[in-house]
Specification:
The complex is a heterodimer of chains A (91) and B (221).
Chain A: H1 7-20, E1 24-25, H2 27-34, H3 38-50, E2 54-59, E3 62-67, H4 69-76, H5 78-87
Antiparallel strand pairs in A: 1-3, 2-3
Helix pairs in contact in A: 1-2, 1-4
Chain B: E1 4-9, H1 15-41, H2 44-71, E2 79-83, H3 89-114, H4 119-134, H5 139-165, H6 171-188, H7 195-219
Antiparallel strand pairs in B: 1-2
Helix pairs in contact in B: 1-2, 1-7, 2-3, 3-4, 3-5, 4-5, 5-6, 6-7
The chains are: A alpha+beta (91), B mainly alpha (221).
Chain lengths: 91, 221
């Protein structure tokens, strides 16, 4: 059985999903691919917006999410971030 | 009443200050790196870890300055004693500043191990630690004992984290805190005999070496 993902791993997974969709994606795709409940996904998306890792564009009844430069930088440095947080028990 | 905080052999004077400066630099590097990681991931605990280590770093620089200030007048003797009772007032201030910053840093590390978002818990840990030291008749012993207890708690957390992760990434940090705990236990007895002070510094050098190694291996990723 696979172990439970850490918070940082979930954040990385969401950002990777957005990046693989050319940097923009609908929330239903994220929900389908991230293996999260709807509430959890909304919570993570709000957190990622607060952290400026993604941006949200609302058009009538649809929402689209875009990965930002900060989000891309997080993915580039993910190995270092993960190694540090695991070493210091912050994961 | 024993008022001595710690004593060190005369031959070790100078080496101890150099080592304390090294400890100060290494802990400052950990703090700097924590904040760098915070800048990338915006995780609150990375910022707090930075505050904890910068506080510990300041305490080492204060200790080095304290030793230079208080012990330079005793150079040439076979034994140098730093006490809380008979020192001139400015030296006492340095000792208490050192105690404050060291316990503040350790309290923050202990608070981080709880993984809760409640500042009242941190205030409780830090205030209880300070009160015990301030109102103790043997403040030096009380300080080292409280620091050892906090380090033991942090060590338990890292042992638990290491067992859970099973990926070996936290082993260096866990060993570092194990050594820091032993070093602090040794320091408890530094008011009785000068040798524990020397042992403390040597063990701490190995511990901070391990922390630095962990940091370098992370930074290279």
């Amino acid at each position: 059985m696979n172990r439970k993902r850490t918070r940082l791993e979930i954040i990385r997974d969401i950002l990777v999903i957005i990046r693989e969709k050319s940097g923009k994606i609908k929330p239903t795709h994220i929900l389908y691919k991230s293996n999260l409940s709807h509430n959890m996904m909304e919570g993570y998306l709000n957190e990622l917006i607060t952290k400026d890792f993604i941006s949200e564009q609302k058009k009538e009844r649809s929402r689209t999410y875009f990965i930002t430069d900060k989000g891309n930088r997080f993915l580039e440095k993910y190995d270092m971030i993960s190694s540090f947080t695991e070493s210091f028990g912050l994961g | 009443m024993v008022s001595s905080f710690y004593s060190l052999p005369g031959w070790f004077f100078g080496y101890d200050i150099a080592l304390e400066l090294i400890f100060g630099v290494i802990t400052a590097l950990v703090a700097f790196f924590s904040w760098k990681i915070y800048g990338l991931c915006k995780e609150r605990h990375c910022r707090l870890l930075g505050f904890a280590f910068v506080s510990i770093s300041i305490s080492y620089f204060l200790l080095a300055f304290l030793n230079l200030l208080a012990a330079s007048s005793q150079v040439g003797g076979t034994l140098i004693t730093i006490s809380l009772k008979n020192v001139i007032v400015p030296s006492s201030i340095w000792i208490y500043a050192y105690i404050f910053f060291f316990l503040f840093g350790l309290s923050m590390l202990t608070y981080l191990t709880f993984k809760v978002r409640d500042q009242r818990l941190f205030v409780l840990i830090v205030s209880l630690s300070m009160v015990v030291v301030i109102f103790s008749k043997q403040a030096g012993v009380a300080f080292n004992f409280v620091a050892a207890v906090l380090l033991f708690y942090v060590l338990l957390f890292y042992v638990d984290s290491y067992k859970k992760s099973k990926r070996g990434k936290g082993v260096l940090v866990m060993l570092a805190f194990l050594l820091l705990f032993f070093a602090r236990i040794s320091f408890v007895f530094a008011y009785l005999n000068p040798l524990p002070y020397v042992a403390d510094h040597i063990i701490e050098l190995i511990a901070y070496g391990l922390l630095l190694l962990s940091l370098v291996s992370t930074a290279r990723k």
